[in-house]
Amino acid sequence: MNKGIEMAEEIVKGDLDHESEAMIRNILDNDRGHLETLNKLMGK
Questions:
Q1: Which residues are CB-neighbours of 16 under 8 A, at least 6 positions away?
Q2: CB atoms within 10 A of CB 40
Q3: What's the rounded mean pLDDT across residues 4-28?
Q4: Which residues contact 32 (CB under 8 A, 6 or more apart)?
Q5: What pLDDT was estimated at residue 14?
Q6: Which pLDDT score is estimated for 23?
Q7: Are 40 and 20 in contact (CB under 8 A)?
Q8: Pairwise CA distance, residues 39 & 26, whole Å
Q9: Distance between CA atoms of 2 and 22, rounded to whole angstroms?
């Protein structure tokens, strides 16, 4: 996993209302998907 994504998860942990947390989780899930695609394209 990317360190940036991990850091973002730690920063927002427990600090958001339910709706905001769900939005951030969705964004981070998309980021993870993009990172996985890029790693595949680079042969990693």
A1: 24
A2: 9
A3: 89
A4: 1, 2, 5
A5: 82
A6: 93
A7: no
A8: 20
A9: 20
The pLDDT tens digits of the residues spanning 26-43 come to 999 999 999 999 999 999
Q: Which residues contact 13 (CB under 8 A, 6 or more apart)?
A: none
**Token couple for 17:** 């209302």
Taking CA atoms, 1 is separated from 16, 20, 31, in Å, by 23, 22, 10
Q: How far is CA 4 from CA 18, 19, 31, in A?
A: 22, 22, 10
The backbone torsions φ and ψ at residue 21, rounded to the nearest 5 degrees and listed phi first, read: -65, -40
